[in-house]
Amino acid sequence: MSTARDFATATLLPNGKVLIAGGYIIVAGNTVDLATAELYDPATGTFTLTGSLATARANHSAALLPNGKAFIAGGLDFINGSYSSVEVYDVASGLFSLAGSMARVRFAFTATLLPSGTVLTVGGAYDSAAELFAPGPSSTLPAYACSLETSLHSINGNQTAAILFQNASGNIRNVYWLNYGGTRQLYATLSPGQGYVQGTFLTHPWVTTDASNTCQAIFLPTLESGVALIP
Q1: Once rounded to an integer, what is the mean pLDDT over residues 19-42?
Q2: How far apart, in Å, are the Cα atoms of 89 and each of 50, 66, 167?
Q3: Mind listing the domains of the chain with CATH numbers?
Q4: Which among 114, 113, 9 is positioned nearest to 58, based on CA atoms?
Q5: Helix or strand holding residue 171 (H, E)
Q6: How far apart are CA 52 and CA 34, in angstroms?
Q7: How far apart are CA 174 and CA 212, in angstroms?
Q8: Of 90, 129, 139, 164, which is most buried with the most CB atoms under 10 A?
Q9: pLDDT confidence of 225, banded at 50, 70, 90?
Q10: What mean pLDDT comes out for the span 38-44?
Q11: What pLDDT was estimated at residue 211?
Q12: For 184-200, what is the mean pLDDT?
């Protein structure tokens, strides 16, 4: 890394890079909290600096949101104490922005993305409480007619996106990527009520089917939207 750091977070982004944010270092026997962040590219094995956090923090938590942004919350510094503030990292701009606050200050806690798109924060040092945090609503993607499938296929592109596939039916549903030849490739099988976040590209279409592989709906990624409700 460009900077040695303890108690930072590492978040896998939809583009395959890893966002490493915050943490602390020891300088002349003093603890210095970091606001800097960097990206690790596994394709090249290199680290590059990106935008900085608004608040230097260590021992915080992170999660990837359905819209492809990274959620960074809580933590502490060794002078001002613990934080409740939340920031999100935008992959396209390389910048962090404030996104509200949790109901309480926390550090050394867990942050887990739920199928609803909200983040469950639990526990932390000297804390047994849990809460749900919604960094902002994700728009529902339109469900396109299955008759379009024969005319769709993926094309090369470099604009990343993310879709939260949510099985809103009472039956098993499959999630397929339409590859560059327009052929289905299975990525997930979801039980009723189950969901997951799929990293993708703007130029990649997705097909959802029932257990017998009959198409139920087609979804196309967008820059800002991210929730695909599978009928």
Answers
A1: 94
A2: 10, 13, 27
A3: 9-133 (2.120.10.80), 146-230 (2.60.40.780)
A4: 9
A5: none
A6: 9
A7: 9
A8: 164
A9: low
A10: 95
A11: 97
A12: 89
